[in-house]
Amino acid sequence: MKKLLGNFYMFVESLSMAISNIMQNRMRSFLTILGIMIGVTAVIALITTISGVSSSISDSFTSMGAGSMSVSATGTELVAGLSGENMDEIAELDHVTGVTPSVSMSLKVAYGRSSETSIRGTGTNEYYFVNDPEALLNGRAITPIDIDDMARVCLVGPEVLEEFFYGIDPVGETIYLNGIAFTVIGTLSDSSDDSVASMLGGSTQILMPYTTALKMNSTTLVNSITVYLDSAESSETVSASLENYLDVLFNFEDDTYTITTMDSIADVMDSMLSMMSALLAGIASIALLVGGIGIMNMMLTSVTERTVEIGLKKAIGAEPGQIQIQFLIESFLLSMIGGVIGVILGLVVSAALCSVMDITFVISYGAIALGVGFSAAVGIIFGWSPARKASKLSPIDALRRM
Q1: What residues pair up with 399 in beta bridges, in sequence order?
Q2: Which pairs count as long-range contacts for 1-6, CB under 8 Å and 24+ apart, including other chains?
Q3: Residue 230 to residue 73: CA distance in whole angstroms
Q4: Is there a contact between 57 and 263 (Cβ–Cβ < 8 Å)?
Q5: How far apart are alpha carbons 254 and 256 in whole angstroms?
Q6: Percent of the chain residues topping a pLDDT of 90
Q7: What is the DSSP annotation of 48-70?
Q8: Is the pLDDT of residue 370 over 60?
Q9: How large is the C-alpha radius of gyration of the chain?
């Protein structure tokens, strides 16, 4: 018990002396702490900001349709895509709520005396509007009758609306797409343009029945569809069912289709961001190493300056281990002060960056643990050599310098 109390009192005394020495050399201590502080701030800010970016990307993928998957079917020489009947059969699979085809084309749009080339058009079906009711801004949506009749009707996006129908209600007007007369039946909202772009592979400004688009492209089969699920959790089940269906359809030939889920894209993005986070943290950690060298330099200087003090302590019975602990505590304190200040500054900087970039601020406890742990390790590792040097000083040689 006495030995335990003695060790405790020795620790308290060493801690008090370490604090006293740090306070007596404020400027030198501050400059030593600065390296650790900058390193930890950089690590925390970078990792926390990237965590916020990752969270925002995940939220974006969810809003874009995490409960959906895209199928690209190039098919075989005999079956070069998906027919309407194939899409109906896919829509009947378990956990599938609907299927939206995508038939893309580049259009020359003309209305009155105005014309514009390279306008992106997409053919789809009625379920697109069922899945995204906010897509329709005005007029009516595409109907099954339009699909069956290959009707020459279309909906126009914001850019076409501004270019050709500024101040005019386009519903009921006739426009020419690649020289073919179409009746405008509705307009697309701004938010729907983002949805179309994400789901159908680009910024769509003209939406029409997919059967009409197929006819304009001189084909009868669809190569790209979006499959909507009743829940994101059923993604694996539906993916397996789709693979079985498409394998049979395309005679089990390789490279005939690709199934992509929003979840898999999000996972790839998370993986890339994690790698980037680790790389940037590694680069920022160089500042911690520089700070560690600064601590070692200060502690070596301190040992030299306090040679007489060390000699006196040894002369009155202080053991080498006690001397070593005292200097290690001082090194550890310097490092941890820099680490704690760095964590606070890192969180403040990352919060500011997230606010400026309009992304979610997510506290990364792993980054905090990394910063604090690295600081502690730097304090111990870089303080070990000076502390050991102090503990090995001969009291006679030390006292000769008085």
Answers
A1: none
A2: none
A3: 22
A4: no
A5: 6
A6: 25
A7: HHHHHHHHHHHHHHHHHHTTEEE
A8: yes
A9: 34
> Which pLDDT band, with edges at 50, 70 and 90, does 279 fall under?
confident
Q: Where are the alpha helices (DSSP H) in 25-157?
A: 26-65, 84-91, 127-131, 144-149
DSSP tag of 317: T
Flag the least confident range among 102-111, 159-168, 246-255, 325-334. 325-334
Q: What share of the chain is helix, strand, coil (3-state, %, to 5)?
A: 60, 15, 20
First to last CA, the chain: 38
pTM for the whole structure: 0.57
What are the backbone dihedrals phi and psi of residue 278, each rounded to the nearest 5 degrees, phi first? -65, -40
Cα separation of 10 and 277, whole Å? 42
CB 279 within 8 A of CB 27: no
| Strands, E assignment, 224-267 | 224-229, 257-261
Token pair belonging to 169? 């209600």
Tokens of 222: 């669809």
Which helix (H) or strand (E) covers residue 185, if one does? Answer: strand 180-188
